[in-house]
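> tool_call: predict_assembly(chains=two)
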Amino acid sequence: MRKSKVLKILSYCLIPILVLIIGLSIFYEILKERYNEKIDTSTYFKTDTFLKMYMSDLSSEVQRLIYHNDQFNSVYDGNIRICFAGGTSFHILNNTQYNLKDYYFLIQYKELAITNVELTSDTDTIEEIKNFINNNGEKKANVVNGIVGGDSEIFTKKSIQHFEKFENTYYSINQDNSNQYVVKQEDSSEILITGNGTYDYRPYEYKYEIQNGEVNVRELEGYEMVDNALEQSTKEWYTTTIKDFLIYSTYSEELVEIEGIEYYKMLIKDLEPYEPQMIYAIPVASVLLVIILIYLIAAIGHSKDKEGIDFNDLDKIPIEIILTVGGTIAICVIYFAIDSLNGINAEYYQFANSLLLTGYFISYILCAVMGVTIVKRIKAKNLIKDSLTGRICRWCWKICKNIYNKIKNICKKIVTRVKRTTKEITKNWPDIIKFSIGLILYFVLSVFLVAIGSFVGFIVALCIGGWFLYSFFENVNCYKKIEKHLKEMYEGNHTKKLDENEFTKEFKDIVKYINDVSRGFENAIEEGIKSERLKTELITNVSHDIKTPLTSIINYVDLLKKENIEGEKAKEYIEVLDNKSQRLKKLTEDLVEASKASSGNVKLNIEKINVVELIKQSTGEFEDKFKAKELEIISDFAEDEMFINADNRYMYRIIENLFSNISKYAQEKSRVYIDVKRVGNKVKIAVKNISKERLNISSDELMQRFVRGDKSRTTEGSGLGLSISRSLTELQKGTFEIQIDGDLFKVELEFEMI
Amino acid sequence: MYNILVCDDDKEIVNAIEIYLSKEGYNVLKSYNGDEALKVLKNNTIHLIILDIMMPVKDGIETLSEIRKTESIPVIMLSAKSEDEDKINGLNLGADDYVTKPFNPLELIARVNSGIRRYTKLGTVDSNNNKNVYKTGDLVIDDDLKNVTVEGKEVKLTPTEYNILKFLTKNKGSVYSIEQIYENVWNDEAYAAENIIAVHIRHIREKIEINPKEPKYLKVIWGIGYKIEKIS
């Protein structure tokens, strides 16, 4: 149900039809009431209602004349200014379809006049207008200085009643000097107007009083006369009554239909046949509409292809933009369609209908699109989240939160700092008190001594102050000495000791501790060196003792090999003996070398050597071994000659070890990179290769003695190679670093360049 | 038949050496300490001595200095002491060669052969006083015949190897870098010399040296270059 496309489309189509049915039904009722009103012309003009409306219309024209006369087109007849009020006509009933026929008026007040008679060359004087009015319209209604005369009996009798309270009061408050004035309401301090210059007020309900440049306003009840409280110099005011006016007006007791309402009448006529059904149509359509809307709200956003709410690009645009754009277009379309109905002739009835329907459907589609996306968003719970307002709010919230956090952090920092300082102070409390008391005492004493004015006292004060300063600087000096000494210790010099006698009492303990620590270090280092030397000696001696029997083993195994011994097994055994004895030999040699190198028990013959030459020579030495494994050597030398200070034999020993490792452990048919670069004032030799076996071992472990990459110890080699290389490198003041990255095995050597 | 005196306190080693040398056609006389060796030397005509250092009664160093007082026969020191100082000390006291234990029997035999050849044929080589002959020690290059002999034995070299060796021998005692060798031998700028020279040098070493890793004639000065040792 929820995911059925057919149902949804059907619903979308049904909605506008149902809305149209309901809308037309309601519209029909309203129109019928408004435009089907029948007026009985034979009695209407005799009613008091008509007379009252007629008089009030004239009355409002009077007010227009007085207050708005400057807005009209006007001509002058001598002193009299005649204003044209436009083609004003008299509506029989407010906003209905009829006008009064031949309705004309001319109202004169002192030198002002207003008329709805069009001002042409024939009608631009008072007399001409009066004539025009007299010649048109069958009934006349004149009010001359409050005396009413007319062609209608009811008019003459009753019209004066409607002018009984005809009073208009006009004020002009002039404040010619530049004094500020304020308009205030009496009994409250509310200021209505402030300003300079001349302002006009038409106080129907307010009384204005000006005192000392301040204008007070008091609310009046009804049309109460305004008393003469305003001074003559600051106001101009006058009250008019019906007696001040000359009013000439004519009309015919006939109605004229207002143009432009034909459309509605035709629409009513068209809809009339369906009137009986409308009673049922409204409730049925409303119920159906509600059901469809509920269904759609439940179904929107669910589709067959997707789980959850189906969002498209439109749904990602902030809701405000959609509402603004869609709403504006919809409103414009509706407004344009309805507005164009006014003044439509009967011949355009069909066209207007189709125009209206088009507008209606366009608006419907827009509303539907907006409605769907809103429902979707509500369902996905991101209506507010994705909207601009939501985003802005969230953004503001974030900023507020950030600011709050920052302030919190700062507060925290301040608090901890204050706490720490307090702690510091409390910890050193006794010292601080001592120091403070001493300082205060000194000041008191010196002030006292100086105060009694004796020269000796002054000298004593000076001496005490000098002593204070001296001991302070002495302590600072001690502190500096200790710092210097500790720095030396940190750099590895433990032989120097501090002389206790050079330090003040406070520092004696510290110096003693430092010296003890230093002595401890020295002893430990000496012990270390001694034991290392002993170890080397031991290893060397043991290796001599091993070598002699090993010589016999190797030689006799060799002799055995040369004997013609029967049996495959015996030959195999001899082969094993041969291999192992050779390995033992290599191991013994390496062991001695490693022990010597690591203990520094090696005599170095330092000379200037060219690293590039060394690498070239070494590569040449290993050419055959590399070729056997089909290793491709790619060497890259930054310069042709890069010199370092080193022992050439040990340098070769290092490179030999590395290359030997490569020939043993590198993946066959892979590439080996040898780079010689200059890094700052150093030469960096980097050797990279791909390991054949997995290197499940860390670079630190690999560098330890007797550890080999393959762990199984089946291949030749003692596992001492890298350890020897590193020791020899470090003996020659270089650095030796291994990096393992997956199967990439990389060794980097660095030496000081010269 | 040459008589060779082998002196070592380890009887098995002496026996093993005897087996190897007998196969080469030498007559081996055995002794197990320095005193015995001196006695044997007094009573026999000895052409070469193989002497161990660490021995009871009288050690190798003492014995060597005793021998050198009267004899000029070649002495090969054979010791488990492989330190540089030991070798230098031994050679300074008059030893002609120094072999460390455990030794390669073939190397020992080669060194014995070399010692015997030098001792017995000394002076005969000098007769060939040709202009186009370059020599150092027992390495002789006859540029007319284009042949190379080491201790009288002819060595087969490729033309390139021959040229390199000739150049170095002509300038024996001086060290030449790869680039310099290339420029002098090929008379060309060294563009991609890389390790061609280094490979050739290793091949030459393998052909002319008894132990290429401890060369006697063609020495490698790592990081500097190569040279032919100047031996009178």
